[in-house]
Amino acid sequence: MAFSRQNYKGTLNGTLFVAIFAAAATYISSLAPIQNLGLSPLIIGIVIGIFYANTLHNNTPKAWQTGITFSAKKILRFAIVFYGFRITFQQITEVGLDGFLVSFIMLASTLILGAWLGYRIFGMEKDTSILTASGASVCGAAAVLATEPVLKAQEHKTAIAVSMVVLFGTVSMFLYPVIYETLIKDATGFLHMDPRTFGIYVGGTIHEVAQVVAVPASVPGSPKEMADAAVIVKMTRVIMIAPMLIILGLYLARDAKKTGEQKDEKMKLVIPWFAVYFIMVAGFNSLHLVPQNIVDIINDIDTFLLTMAMTALGMGTVFSKFKGLGLAPIYTATGMFIWLLIGGFIVTKFVCS
Q1: How far does the chain reach from its first CA to its final CA, in angstroms?
Q2: Torsion angle, alpha carbons of 245, 247, 252, 255, to 10
Q3: How far is CA 257 from CA 23, 253, 268, 269, 347, in A?
Q4: With contact defined as beta carbons under 8 Å apart, do 271 and 252 qualify?
Q5: What is the DSSP string of 62-76?
Q6: pLDDT tens-digit readout, 3-49
Q7: Which pLDDT tens digit goes with each residue over 181-201?
Q8: Quick check: pTM over 0.70?
Q9: CB of 352 within 8 A of CB of 197?
Q10: CA dihedral angle for residue 114, residue 119, residue 124, residue 127, rounded to 10 degrees
């Protein structure tokens, strides 16, 4: 146990150690050049954690590892639950059925495509394939974090998935405004999208919430309806993480039973209860019983906790564990990126027409 009598001190010190790194990541993410890149403290945190894992790891007391693990596992689940304070069911209804359909179609198709490409086509290990697919299909690093406990995946696999989110999400963030200005804004016929439809396209296909916010802000003179549609559709994708994780848990339990990988007492369905609690928190937040200034404080604390979890996961990521993966993650993420960019455009046009 992390806080047993013999592990209490080490767990506390390790958790505080992670918190210091997370505080540094939060500060770095607040710097103007980093904000302009749309990099969240979660991403900065895992980068710092990976740097530590491959340079200073051996200089840290081994007793602190329980605290690092506690941050990567327990604090993570707690933070995902309170992520529900960022969402209300009213936001989903505001964008309408077309925004919901785009979110659902792109999430389901990207998740299935990414897992299939990674595992069946490019020969990646199943956990890494699913983690990479979840990051692209739902909400970037936060989705990878939420999926990791369901899979019980190793830290380096999570880091691979997050790195793909960072790479292709950043490319999307810079590419979409260019596409809008050069191909969509003044086009006629099939290529044309009005600002609201383009916002739905952005929210339904770009990885991170921060990256979704950055795209309309990068379009000169973009109307408010573009940004509103993008953020609401993105948050619709975020809330879908809960049913996705429950379905994934059902699939994994069925697959384990079918292949005989689990036996006797292990042959039971693993329900990600933190995903259920996430929906409950979002439902509670939809009632608007808590003042907005308090919700903002909760969200700030939650972001810090998520940053701690990302940092801790980075601390368990040693590059030597990546041997043998080759370019499979890149190929898989590229396939999903092409689908999100082109397939997402076609889906959005079809649904919103």
Answers
A1: 55
A2: -170
A3: 43, 6, 9, 10, 36
A4: no
A5: GGGHHHHHHIIIIIH
A6: 666 777 888 999 999 999 999 999 998 998 888 776 778 878 888 98
A7: 899 988 888 999 999 999 999
A8: yes
A9: yes
A10: 80
